[in-house]
Amino acid sequence: MGKFQLEIWGEMCPIPLIKAQRKLKTMKSGDILVMETEHSCTSQGIVVWAKNNRYQIEETEVANGIWHLELTKTHD
Question: What is the C-alpha separation between 74 and 14, in angstroms, rounded?
Fold first, then answer.
């Protein structure tokens, strides 16, 4: 299992989701994609997409207005 950081700071949807989808294509099942954003709509959009596509995702508000996302690739 690997852990990969994706820079999405300051970006609005759909750009972060497109970046995440592209990165996931290069990852193996069990790998984790880590992202942080200051936009609640970006966080919510990624969480909804991940759940709808059967990915495991953990969302944590680590500070007021800062969300930490850990998306686990659960299938190829």
Answer: 22
Write out pLDDT tens, residues 41-64.
Answer: 999 999 999 999 999 999 999 999
Distance of CA 20 to the CA centre of its chain: 6
Distance CA 67, CA 6 (A): 13
Taking the C-alpha atoms of residue 53 and residue 36, their distance in angstroms, rounded to an integer, is 20
Q: What is the pTM of this model?
A: 0.94
CA atoms within a 13 Å half-sphere pointing along the CA-CB vector of 68: 6
**What is the C-alpha separation between 27 and 76, in angstroms, rounded?**
8
The one-letter code for the residue type at 41 is C
CB 59 within 8 A of CB 31: no
Place domain 3-72 in its CATH homologous superfamily: TusA-like domain (3.30.110.40)
